[in-house]
Amino acid sequence: MAYIVAEPCIGTKDHACVDVCPVECFYEGEEILWIHPEECIDCAACEPECPVAAIFEATQVPEQWQHFIQQNADACKDGHTLPVAVQRAVWEAQKEEEGSEANLYYKKYPAKH
To answer: What does this protein do (predicted)?
Structure first.
């Protein structure tokens, strides 16, 4: 069973999880990072790296965030066009690039930490 990204990621998108993923199964959503459920190898490397505790094994997702299991799956359906998530250093550098995805994201969601 794959790992799932849930609500705490919204407004954070830290990307530390992306750095440790050995199979590059993270994708950039508009507000959140998604884990492709068919690409995730259940290694759990990402879970402890998340600074806002937004990553869960699918059977361990808290009740209030259960709907994120389907949202992760829907976001990564065959034919999806989401870009592969970039490493944290790249994401952080893009914050300063006017008009970049990271720059626009943090204009919408000022940094939490």
So the answer is: Ferredoxins are iron-sulfur proteins that transfer electrons in a wide variety of metabolic reactions.
Return the domain boundaries, the chain.
Answer: 3-87
Q: Dihedral (C-alpha) 50, 56, 62, 66: value to the nearest 10 degrees?
A: 110
User: Which CATH code fits 3-87?
Assistant: 3.30.70.20
Strands (DSSP E) found in 3-91? 3-5, 26-28, 33-35, 55-57
Q: Rounded distance, CA 111 to CA 46, Å?
A: 20
Over the stretch 27-82, which tens digit does the pLDDT of each residue have?
999 999 999 999 999 999 999 999 999 999 999 999 999 999 999 999 999 888 99
* Structure tokens belonging to residue 103: 């720059």
Tokens 């994401």 found at: 91
